[in-house]
Amino acid sequence: MAVQIIALLTFVAVFVIAELRRSHIGIVMFAAAAGMGLLVAGLALDDIVAGFPIDILILLVGVTYFFGIAKANGTIGRLVDRALVLVGSNTAALPLTFFLLTAAVSAMGSPLGGLVMAPIGMSVAHRRRIDPMLMGLAIGTGLSAGAFAPTSLFGIVTWGTANTAGIALNPLTLFAVAVIVNLVLLAAAYLMFGSRSRARTTVSTAAGGAVATGGEDEPEAGEERPAREPFETIHLVTVVAMLGLIAAVVVLAIVGNNPDVGVLAFAFGAALTLIDPDNGRKALKEIDWSTVLLVGGIITYVGVLQEIGAVDLLGDLAAMMTVPLLAALVICAVGGLVSAFASTTGILAALVPLAIPLIEQGGVAGWALICALGVCSSIVDVSPFSTVGATLVATTVDPDQRPRMTALLTRWGLSMVVIGPVVLVGTLVLPAMAFQ
Fold first, then answer.
1. How distant, in Å, are the alpha carbons of 157, 172, 226, 298, 349 from that of 295?
2. For labeling, which of 214, 316, 321, 377 is most exposed (least CB within 10 Å)?
3. For the chain, what is the largest distance between any 2 Cα atoms, rounded to a whole number of angstroms?
4. What letter would DSSP give residue 204?
């Protein structure tokens, strides 16, 4: 038991030290896995390296490369521009619009890619007299919703890790749960902050006496409205490829086959790079190698934990909790609390395998617990101590609003640590237990 406890304590210590030192957790964790496996557990190096998740690597590289091409050739920018045109002057619809836009971008491989909407959304909120907190939460919840798409990182890591561990989880079910939960949170944000949006008033610009209405997206004085870039052939081809990828994932999931999103993305990406080699080369830098190493390092260490029986030890400890529902609440709360300050991807990669012993006891439905754990670890990301929250604060246009944003996002993020597990375990895990 001593070896298992040392390995678990080392796992926690590496997380904490790497975060404090702002080091890459995946690289440090991989080295720790090798050291722990060789020097403490006496494992063979081949057994340690075998824990590196090649299947998830293919998924991440294929998806980020494919959508990297769409970004490099300008297709994503044009799609966002057209979506904004559809909204027009309907100010009340703007937070929902940015939720959908952010979710769409987040679903295209990397959740943090959705942060490209933050500067745009917060600027639009300032001009349209929308409470920045409402717009910030719209972007944050949209990012969380899209992140669990079968084509995006959180979805890939969560259901990919679950399926590798033998837990049946339909990726579309995970995505649907994430979308519903985040839409509910957006509705709550409308109720809490919608009434604080400043009334649309007629204001005079400082130069030239030009008048603009708060509800109209007029250019500033002396500023020309930018020309809208047209769709060219390559953009239309890219849109077709994007729709083809999404359709392939949906159809394969519906017919009962687990879609290999990475291989599909490589196939569509290969077609696009043959058509447009220049942007294909540019897209290479969009491959999220940092995340590949992050997930790979953590899962490799978890593999060592599994080899030496540390995961079974956690299962025994979970078995000591005679109420499975309480154990589910605890693990979801831990995921949310740590994710509010650290890498959500890392938490998902670490806690999904560690939740397996609780599932194997038979008291908790695996799909329900994994969905709850994944979403609980994501909805706290608007905390200003995380990348998402910090970006929302930094892109708030009015400097006087930033302290308020920091305080409110802190309260919102930390409240989700409690509210998320209670609601998701109550609405997913508890009913699933009743029907097992």
1. 8, 22, 41, 5, 6
2. 316
3. 78
4. E
- Tokens representing 115 are 């942060």
> Which residue type does 266 have?
F
- The string of pLDDT tens digits covering residues 287-344 is 878 778 877 888 888 888 878 887 667 656 655 666 778 888 888 888 888 777 666 7
Q: Which residue has the tokens 């890392």?
A: 346
pTM comes to 0.69
Cα–Cα distance for residue pair 6/10, rounded to 1 Å: 6
Map tokens 């190493």 to a residue: 293
For residue 211, the cross-strand partners are 204
412 phi-psi bin (left φ>0, alpha ψ -120 to 50, beta other): alpha
Q: How far apart are CA 389 and CA 141, in angstroms?
A: 11
Computed over every residue of the chain, the mean pLDDT equals 81
Q: Alpha carbon 154 to chain centroid distance?
A: 5
**Structural domain boundaries, residue 342:** 2-197+229-434
User: Residue ranges of the alpha helices (H) in 128-223?
Assistant: 132-147, 153-164, 171-193
- Per the structure, the count of domains in the chain is 1
Q: What share of the chain is helix, strand, coil (3-state, %, to 5)?
A: 75, 0, 25
Residue 264 lies in a domain: yes
Asked whether residue 211 is domain-assigned, the answer is: no
Distance (Å, whole) CA 145 – CA 117: 14
Q: Is residue 214 part of a domain?
A: no
Is 206 part of any domain?
Answer: no
